[in-house]
Design a protein that fits this description.
Length: 150
């Protein structure tokens, strides 16, 4: 996934402050933008986002991360338990990740999380929310739009 000679702070969808990653947005609609697509052909490093099935455990090392957007990553299935180490995270968006199956219990460690979006998952694979969701005391927005079991 990562290319050794690349500077991740220059990647589309990655924002940083003070040399620390604060936001990651993996949104395939950016891949479909004509200008972006012309600059980064399908065999580029960005193609993997369409096949993203899970985040690596190393995501927990991005302790300054405040926003994580994985919109339309249709093969994305789970979050690693290390997600609980992202104690500055305020926004987590997994909308339209239709293969998503599991929110780990460590989700409850995200005490600064104010927005959790699980919209348009259709909940064919995500059957229950963990009880630790109740530990998200800062949560002001939980979007479960079209999360229905059929």
């Amino acid at each position: 996934m990562w290319v050794d000679d690349d500077d991740p702070f220059e990647w589309k969808g990655v924002k940083a402050e003070g040399g620390r990653v604060t936001s990651i947005s993996i949104i395939p609609k950016d891949l479909l933008d004509y200008d972006f697509f012309r600059e980064h052909p399908p065999d580029s490093r960005f193609e993997w986002s369409l096949r993203l099935e899970a985040l690596p455990p190393e995501i927990g090392q991005l302790t300054a991360l405040t926003s994580l957007n994985l919109i339309w990553c249709s093969q994305f299935t789970t979050l690693p338990s290390e997600i609980g180490q992202l104690t500055e995270l305020t926004s987590l968006n997994l909308s339209r990740c239709i293969q998503f199956t599991t929110l780990p219990s460590e989700i409850g460690q995200l005490t600064t999380l104010t927005k959790l979006v699980l919209a348009y998952l259709y909940c064919e694979h995500l059957m229950v929310l963990p009880p630790e969701i109740g530990d998200l005391t800062a949560l002001t927005s939980l979007d479960l739009k079209d999360c229905r079991r059929g």
